[in-house]
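Possible race condition, two jobs.
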Amino acid sequence: MPAKRSILLFVDDASVLSSLEFSLSLSGFAVADGSSADPSTAAALVFDQACRGDGLAMLEALRTSGCKAPAVLLATNPTRALQRRVAAADATIVEKPLLGDELNRALDKVLDKQDTGDGVMLRKIDEDPLPGLPVGAEAYKRTGTFTEASIPAALLANHSTKEGAWGLIQVERGRLRYLVTDPRRPSSERVLTPHTPPGVVEPTIVHRVEPLGEVQFYIEFLRVVDTAAGHAPAQQEG
């Protein structure tokens, strides 16, 4: 069964592949190169139309073989003919060049639709939230489980979540050092274990993690629900 946030990328250009892996991992996705992975292990697939001359043809072949994973096609100035093929392959087009978080939003949308069939299923955090976590924060997605051997390089380097996206670093086994390095906050570090509260990640605040030997952890993403409207504002998606 595929992990809920696992993404396979089918991209020939090594620099583009590396850039996409970095940006998607910052948003909580577990990302891998699709050229050497089994598509059945992924929650979603991303194809560059330039991949092997016709990325959509690769998806069409997978559809013929029975693959039903949600898919996104990256294309420049897609023609009507290409758009019809994308629709027939039950995929979503994201136009290049990528100027913002269009790909992240497209993946969130197709995965949320797959998970719930109608919008996002939010898990409510305890009414008495963790220190530093705002009242009304609700979890809406999580990464796969990382170990000391599989931590994405982006998590080991200084990075941050987007505006409105909170995080909880949940350690299941071992020890993980969590460092806040943002100049807007006092420098701090904590060692997280299964017996300590999770590490609270503030939106846009720069931080990183370091494994202290063997470790197993995941990151849960949260947003503050607009209680008056009964939903999370769109701009707060992580």
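Job #2 (started ~2 s after job #1):
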Amino acid sequence: MITYCIPSKDNLRYLKNSITSIRENSTEPHSIIVFVDTDHDGTVQWLLENNVRYILNDEDIPKGISYGYNRCIEAATTDIVCMFHADMYMAKGFDTGMLKYLKRGTVVSGTRIEPPLHPKGLEKIVKDFGMYPEDFKKEEFEAYTTKAVEIYRGKTTNGIFAPWAIYKDDITSIGMHDESLVSCHEDSDLFQRFMLNGYELVQTWESLVYHLTCRGGQFQDGAEQITTNELYHKRKKESEKTFIRKWGHPVRVDKYVRPVILPKWTVTLHIENSAPHIADFFEPYSVPDGNIEIRFDARRLTQQSLQIFHAIIEAPRSGTFDIFSVNVKNPAPCDLKKLIHLNI
């Protein structure tokens, strides 16, 4: 039995389709738990009327996607949990395709079909079945996915992205999502910890969903309209900085959106002629008494310099590179395995 974990923030318009698709297209016994982060659109009332289990954030400030997923996982009474988005529509055969590859120590991801809001990628299918629930071409989608499942029968790759499933005790044993990553990169952080813990990542192309794309995030105000929500942008920036502080670099992924885990060194920056926006940008990279020292004059910064800076922190060696003077005091990188487990 699978529990579908769905964080939702005033997403009833999309959530209705998501839950309906799970109920109509699941083959295996399942349950659904929704974390309602904010409710100004009647989400709780609809969930009550439709007998869907939910957890409500009773505070005025949204808790974020990591917190929502974690509360759903904790509340699940099944052996298997699946992270699902409120703006996803499940195709027939999704659950049987996931369970085909799922075992202990394995994380199985489905494959997204998305409208052309983002660039094409090898880890997904870009095909337009509508931008909103109201114009979703359900019959066309079902006809397409029925054929696609047969075409992709047996195809797996090593990418990972929601929706993904795992045994509950496999994710709780390492502490679940890092709740300090409130708005974004919580998945990249968790996937890297899965990999460091030796879990196998499998993406099956037999399990398909239609993903309306970031309707709880950057496209929450509508397709092709980046949100102006100040809290979203503030939390996004905070999460990006938190990820850098933790892992030593921004998120890196391969062509299948599988995390690329780079070595981490502690770095101390000495910046001459800095300015508030420069100090703000470099702050998450710098710690006191790091094993790498980097000195530079902020007046000489260029876009090329920033690229060189990232190359330096990914493979540091002593010397002068562009505007940067680098002193490697200790060449040993940090032990990343210390980042696997959280104490939430």
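The first strand starts at residue 2 and ends at 9.
Logs attached separately.
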